[in-house]
Structures are given as structure tokens and as C-alpha cells.
Amino acid sequence: MDAALYEQHQRLEDTHWWFLGRRHLVLRELRRHAGPDPGPILDVGCGTGGMLPHLQRIAPAVGLDSAEEAAQACRRRDVAFVHGWGPRLPFADGSFGTITALDVIEHVSDDTGMLRELHRVLRPGGLLLITVPAYQFLWSQHDEFNHHQRRYRRRTLQRAVRRAGFGIARLSYYNTLLFPAAVARKAMMRFQRGSGPVSHLEELPTPLNALLRGVMLREEPIVARWDLPFGASLICAARRPAAASAPVPRKIAATAGAA
Description:
Elements: H1 3-12, H2 17-33, E1 41-44, H3 52-55, E2 61-65, H4 68-77, E3 81-83, E4 96-102, H5 111-121, E5 122-133, H6 141-145, H7 154-163, E6 167-174, H8 179-190, H9 206-225, E7 233-239
Parallel strand pairs: 1-2, 1-4, 2-3, 4-5
Antiparallel strand pairs: 5-7, 6-7
């Protein structure tokens, strides 16, 4: 991401309805699927580290990102961070019990290749939790501003995850109650092309932000019970197949130092 995006995320991720709604859903799914021994946790593409304090309440957690802005933000939050990226992550095989990749894989050209690398550093039986933006017809300047490579449908995310060797525990759309508003907003953004890149993660008036957050929180128990048939985003819980003879690492095994 550009430096401006890291600044934007750091400013908004603790208060903006979209970040808060995603966080509640992710934490619920982690509690549902991670099992009694979920750690250590790796938050891939952690950005400014907003999820890490919440993940640390579940198990020891470390963030990974390639940007110096991310390293600086994670230092200010006093959370564990490793500075790195690329086709091979700086961790030994089977280092983690849980990996989160929250709105990350849409940024890379080879999403299946990245997922295979996450499979490598996840221990057998471990959990991968992914969120991604949905539907290519919702493509807008927001995607261009965020350097997205693609948006997903259920079947395209399912295919990429399975090709990487994971078994899918659950896969659902979310951001469903607000889907009509998202479609309308994306249509409006297409008329703003002359004004340069636009992100929909802008600061909102407090009452509107609270209203949208309330809608997301009301949707959360619905997603917990049913896989929703459409929505502006997708969430996937996947598992690396267990190997009975594989050792379970107790510490994060990193081949690069923390920033």
C-alpha cells in the first residue's frame, strides 16, 4: 500500500464501522474454528497492527508486513512485528497454529502462490482465516487506490484456497445487509473518475458511523449461523490437513529479526 493508505488506516481502524465490523466477525470465527490450541498466530499483511492487540488476547501473535510505515505503527502499539514479504516468508515450516490474512490476497498477482506459502508456515491442522472484497462488478476507484489485483466470487476464492492445499471449513459472503448501499456507492464512484483515486474508507459523521456499525453488528449473528449467498465481502475459514506424526511447535520460529 501507499504511505497515504497506512496513515489513513491508522487513523480510522479503531473507530471506522467497516474495520470494527470486520474485527468482530473475524474474532467470532476464530473462537469458533481455531480450537483449544490456536497459537502462535500470524497476521499477514498486518498494516498498522490494529488486529494484533485483539489476537494477542487469544494467543501469542505477530504481525508481518513489508512497509516501514507498518513497522513504525506496530512499534507505537507495542505489538510483535516482523518486517518482510516476498515469495518465501521469513518463518520455518509449521511455525503457526493460526494465520489471518485480512483483505490481503487481493493485493498480490499470484494469490494461490501466496496461499501455498501460508500453507507451508501453518502447522498441520492449523487454521487460516481470510477476508477479501467480493464481486468484480463492484470494482471502483477504491480498488485502484488500494492497488487491488482482483475481487472475488465464492467459487474463485474456493478454487484458490483448495489449489493451495487447504480444506475449507466455511466460506460465506458478508456485508450483506449493506450490499444495496455498496452497489449504489460503487456506481457513484464510477462517475468520479475525473477527480482521481477515491477510497470509501473516509471519516464519517459520528451518528452515520454508529448507524453503519450497528448494521454490521446485527448481521454478525446471522453470518455465524448461515453461509450468506451474497455480500460485498467474503470470509473463509480453511484448515491445513492434519498429519498425525507432525510435531507441534510451541514458539514462533522466525528466520528474520523483528523490526
